[in-house]
Design goal:
globular; single chain; two-stranded antiparallel ribbon; LLM class F420-dependent oxidoreductase; 319 residues; oxidoreductase; F420_G6P_DH-rel; alpha/beta; Luciferase-like_sf; F420-G6PD/mer; 45% helix; TIM Barrel
Length: 319
């Protein structure tokens, strides 16, 4: 079991993200994973820095902390050749601590390049072609590729690490789970859905299984839920909505009926270590073994202290 910390780049300034990653290592977390967006979710977030720059700085300032994108879309805003090069370089400078988390993307950040927003089947096909291109470039030498959506012309990644990064593929349903099994080294999800893991393993999937556990550490449950509502109220909309809305204003309008009570139900809120441990256990019971705590509480340093002194030892004892 590996326990991680989610770096929420849409609501935190770049240097603060780096500082929090350093503190996460000191608090005993095994890894951090960072969202890779061009736009934030909500108007009040006001941040969305370049994830690859942040990860590179973290790699230079930490020793054992593993790093991951959670997740990158390598098929619309980025060309997969750029991601193949970026991931290989980050694996080298981090001394083998990087995991490439990939997914089919959200309209929020991918539409900016003016190619429109593909329907779900085309998005999955683009992701398939992107993964084939990345694998091809990581095999060494010069390569070309001609897919239905993506092209590669006489390209080579010159700096390749001795051990390639693992590719962990995000899936929200059986079609994506099958793709993760075929072309990925692991699975990434956001819900404690055991049937998703079953679909992945049935299709031949094997490897790490990542998921995010929503928490909101605070002096009391209500203040935790209020802080989570301010930052994460888009979460209860579900991925069919999250993937389709175009900008923060649309998310602001779509979340106007999400209540603080809804967040208290969705997040482990407050200071009780057993409440947080029970939420974590739900994901473990579903079969996930790389769990990133996504803290929506008001005080990140208080959360790091809580994890170091109470929650971390409690979770590891249970494991």
């Amino acid at each position: 079991m590996q326990i991680g910390y989610k770096l929420f780049a849409e609501d935190v300034a770049p240097k603060e993200l780096i500082r929090r990653a350093v503190e996460a290592e000191r608090a005993g977390f095994d890894f951090v994973e960072i969202s890779d967006h061009f736009h934030p979710w909500l108007p009040q977030h006001q941040h969305s820095s370049f994830a690859w720059s942040i990860l590179s700085a973290i790699a230079a300032k930490t020793d054992s902390l593993r790093l991951a994108t959670g997740v990158t879309c390598p098929s619309i805003r980025y060309h997969p050749a750029i991601i193949a090069q970026a991931a290989a370089t980050l694996q080298i400078i981090s001394d083998g601590r990087f995991t490439l988390g990939v997914g089919a993307g959200e309209r929020l950040s991918e539409h900016i390049v003016g190619e429109g927003w593909p329907e779900i089947g085309d998005r999955h096909q683009r992701l398939r072609e992107a993964l084939e291109i990345i694998r091809l470039l990581w095999s060494g030498g010069s390569h070309s590729y001609r897919g239905d959506f993506l092209r590669l012309e006489d390209a080579r990644v010159y700096d390749l690490p001795e051990t390639l990064p693992q590719i962990v593929v995000a899936a929200g349903g059986p079609q994506a789970a099958a793709l993760a099994a075929e072309l990925g080294d692991g699975l990434f999800a956001t819900d404690p859905d055991a049937s998703l893991i079953e679909a992945w393993t049935t299709a031949g999937g094997d490897g790490p299984r990542y998921c995010e556990v929503p928490t909101a550490f605070a002096p009391d449950a209500r203040s935790g839920a209020e802080a989570a509502h301010e930052r994460f109220r888009f979460g209860p909309l579900g991925w069919k909505v999250l993937a389709e809305l175009p900008d923060p204003t649309a998310f602001d309008q779509a979340t106007q009926f999400v209540r603080v009570d809804d967040m208290e139900d969705a997040f482990a809120c407050g200071p009780d270590v057993e409440v947080h441990a029970a939420a974590f256990q739900e994901y473990r019971d579903a079969g996930f073994d790389h769990l990133a705590l996504m803290d929506g509480g008001p005080d990140p340093d208080a959360f790091f202290g809580f994890f170091r002194d109470e929650l971390g030892p409690r979770l590891r004892d249970a494991g």
